[in-house]
Specification:
The chain has 82 residues and is of the alpha+beta class. The chain has one domain (2-60): Ribosomal protein L30/L7 (Ribosomal Protein L30, Chain: A). The chain has three helices and three strands; from the N terminus they run βαβαβα. It has a three-stranded antiparallel β-sheet with strand order 2-1-3, with no helix packed on it.
């Protein structure tokens, strides 16, 4: 799963109200503020409405290894069984 690093580079002042609301919906409040959002169609749609105000980078998350479901013995349990 990837994430989007979104930075507000231009002010929404002077733009219409729907664009200002879109900036706020993305979680941006100040210039040069950066937020991480999941890469999904709704976020991509919001970005498509105001690309002139934003800078967007895609961040690939490394997959974490799956953990075993078996219970591991702690050191105190090993001493009792021996």
């Amino acid at each position: 799963m990837s994430k989007l690093k979104i930075t507000l580079k231009r002010s929404p002042i002077g733009h219409n109200e729907t664009q200002k609301r879109t900036v706020r919906a993305l979680g941006l409040r100040r210039l040069n503020q950066t937020v991480l959002q999941p890469d999904n169609p709704s976020i991509r749609g919001m970005i498509a409405r105001i690309p002139h105000l934003l800078q967007v980078e895609v961040i690939q998350e490394a997959e974490q290894p799956k953990r075993s479901r078996r219970a591991r013995k702690t050191s105190s349990e090993e001493e009792v069984t021996e």
